[in-house]
Specification:
single chain; alpha+beta; 434 Repressor (Amino-terminal Domain); 2 domains; four-stranded antiparallel beta sheet; 7 strands
Length: 173
Amino acid sequence: MKTKKEVVRIKEIYKIEDFKIFCLFTNEEYRIIDFSELFKIWKVKENDIEFKLLEISDFQKVKLNNGTLSWQNISVNLLNEHGHEEEFPFELDPIMLYQNSKIDPEKLFENFGMLLRNERIKSGLTTKQLAKKSGISENYITKLENEKSNIELLMIRDILQNGFGKKLKINVE
């Protein structure tokens, strides 16, 4: 039986710092959306609706609405379902926001289970295969992926090196 894949949306805004918005997404990943980078990518000009976001006081009035970022203080005119023009708050596509965000390194271990699952799937491995390659029980791998167990640093190293053939690098700032 196929299961419906859920669209990733924003669950919570937990911090706003300058032009960075720190969000918890519905897939339980803590991510940072750096709008100073997005503004460069978008090449925002004076006549663009996004130009209003360049004013930090307007930008930081962001709210969460229906799983995405919304600025009630900035409005756009769009056609409603009846074909009539209507004023709406400026909102951005949550999928685009997710794709243009980065994992929050300060919340890395709160993301570990999701990161492990994503890496395992990306590598084309089942939990059983990863368990065999890394020398860790399948039950433990499943508990880690579901955030039902804590993990030791040596265990992370074993999973990364033996399971995925990757190296563990730690940066302390």
